[in-house]
Amino acid sequence: MSAPVLLLDAGNSRLKWALATPGGYLAQGSLGYGERAQLPASLAGFDAPRAALGCNVAGPQVAAELAAQLAPLTIDWLRPVAAQAGLRNGYREPGQLGADRWAALIGARGLAAGDCIVAMAGTALTVDALSAEGDFLGGLIVPGFRLMRQALAQGTADLGLPGGEPADFPRSTGEAIVNGALAALAGAIEQARGRLERHTGRPAQLLLSGGDGPLLAPLLAPALAERLIAVDNLVLRGLARLAFNDPERKPLP
User: Fold this and answer.
1) How far apart are alpha carbons 245 and 49 in whole angstroms?
2) What whole-number distance in Å separates Cα of residue 18 and Cα of residue 41?
């Protein structure tokens, strides 16, 4: 077996990683940024990776620290381009698209061949439209569940950060805030799905990923919930597709 490839997803709040081969993952994990010095120890016991492919939205300092940790291994950081892996990037300036969104779209194409909405519910919610023909049409960025609650706490005198459970008819301030944030996020997904279906005239699937995905899935309209694919680590899946299925990408096979 050839040496594995290290995949890195440096997100807004956590570092996700996987040691991958063409046959699948040998190991994977997630580290808070205060814990990222543990990454080399997490990789111990496996064959040393021969290459690393990463996606970074956490900033240049995180990229530099990871590069120093993993030296002499060089990290090939993904940069969105106009066309790659069978997809066409519809951003007016393709390079300005977030690398995590581009990787997630590539990962989504490996799971769904038709029209689909790709939603990643993390620190922010991103909701992107991908056509069956491989066109990324555009998308939304919305503050995530925790950011919405924090914004209310910081922007008002009395609300704070009370907790609450999902409810059809919230009857406390905490429930009102929690359910209001979840309804706004689910509504963004529903609106994007409706726009895509009106644009193509075809039903669309939903790929939902991210830590808050399980909170949102029960709130989706039944017609969309029936076409839901819940998937972990969609960014890593996209990086794996690039690492092993994109013959134009070097130095990875």
Assistant:
1) 18
2) 13
pLDDT at 160: 62
Q: What H or E segment, with its residue span, contains residue 210? A: none
User: Catalytic pick from 9, 100, 115, 128?
Assistant: 100
Rounded to a whole number, what is the distance in angstroms from the first to the last CA of the chain?
14
76 is catalytic: no
- Residue 232 structure tokens: 């972990």
Q: Is the dihedral of CA 162, 120, 78, 17 positive or negative?
A: positive
Amino acid at the residue 29: G
Return the pLDDT at 1. Answer: 54
Phi, psi of 38 (to 5 degrees): -80, -5
**Per-residue model confidence (pLDDT) at position 7:** 97
Identity of the residue numbered 162: P
Model confidence over 133-162: pLDDT tens digits?
Answer: 999 999 999 999 999 888 887 866 566 666
232's CB contacts (< 8 A; 6+ apart) are 209
Looking only at the bridges linking them, the beta strands covering 75-77 and 51-56 are parallel
In this prediction, the residues of the chain whose per-residue pLDDT falls under 70 are 1, 155-162, 246-253
Q: Give the CB-side neighbour count of residue 223, counting CA atoms within 13 A.
A: 7
> Could you say which DSSP state residue 64 is in?
H
**All domains in the chain, ordered by first residue:** 5-78 (3.30.420.40), 112-230 (3.30.420.40)
d(CA 135, CA 148) in angstroms, rounded, equals 30
| Per-residue pLDDT, 246 | 63
